[in-house]
Specification:
By secondary structure, the chain is of the alpha/beta class. It has one domain: Ribonuclease Z/Hydroxyacylglutathione hydrolase-like (Metallo-beta-lactamase, Chain A, 4-Layer Sandwich). 21% of the residues lie in helices and 21% in strands. It is built from seven helices and ten strands. The longest helix has 14 residues, at 195-208. It is globular, with a radius of gyration of 17 Å. The mean pLDDT is 96.
């Protein structure tokens, strides 16, 4: 809805929720640069950006992960699910249904068989825990149904000492999507299935959280942890 033709360098973000002895991983990132360049777009991925190395920097290894949450099943958010064998992976049932047979506009995002690829989410089919709507995952942590970017999208709502944070991921890919532009209060992503659904979701988000954390915005890394340490 703005900046047509403008090129942006954006990160692909996974979130680690820690508390009460739990390590909950939200999304697992994308494939390697060679694969991405051929099938999607060029990426930069240094050794220190690899998911397991990032987790190691937080003192976490795959065995320490309590569970995985996929906000949705696009290739750049579930590619590395198989690095966490035996762990439950939470996803909305409606997302799985759509991912199995997406609209043609989203074939590439799911790496669908329709274009001769094997969807990366299918590597871990025996690990999925399908949920339907808003679900309390643990005390103070809720899987929140926010259809938008995809019809089965979910965020993760986390109670903190500084209010409620919503890991919105690609429902609001950048802070600008939520903050608007002075004309529109919120700006929908260009990737969606139902624009009316997007606006209903934004109305819901306004009621349930104090802060949002997007899926592809470098401003996220201005803080190492949320709530910010002061």
């Amino acid at each position: 809805m703005q900046g047509a033709g403008e090129k942006l360098i954006t990160p692909i973000i996974a979130y680690l929720i820690q508390g009460n002895g739990r390590n909950i991983l939200v999304d697992t990132g994308c494939g390697d640069p060679e694969w991405s360049k051929v099938h999607h777009h060029p990426i930069v991925q240094t050794e220190d950006m690899l998911l397991l190395n990032v987790l190691k920097g937080h003192g976490v290894c795959p065995e320490n992960i309590t569970c995985v949450v996929n906000t949705h099943l696009h290739w750049d958010h579930c590619w590395n699910n198989d690095l966490f064998p035996g762990k439950k992976i939470y996803v909305q049932k409606s997302e799985m249904d759509f991912a199995m047979k997406p609209l043609p506009t989203q074939w590439a995002y799911y790496e669908s068989e329709e274009i001769g690829l094997k969807p990366p989410f299918k590597k871990t089919m025996d690990q999925y825990e399908l949920v339907d709507g808003d679900v309390d995952l643990y005390p103070g942590i809720q899987l929140t149904f926010i259809p938008s970017h995809t019809p089965g999208f979910q965020g993760v709502l986390v109670d903190t000492d500084n209010g409620r944070y919503l890991i919105a991921s690609d429902c609001l890919g950048r802070f600008d999507n939520w903050e608007g532009n002075g004309v529109m209060r919120h700006i929908p992503s260009a990737i969606h299935v139902d624009l009316n659904q997007c606006y209903r979701t934004y109305d819901k988000i306004e009621k349930i959280c104090d802060y949002i954390l997007p899926g592809h915005d470098g401003r996220v890394f201005e803080e190492r942890v949320y709530p910010p340490e002061r």
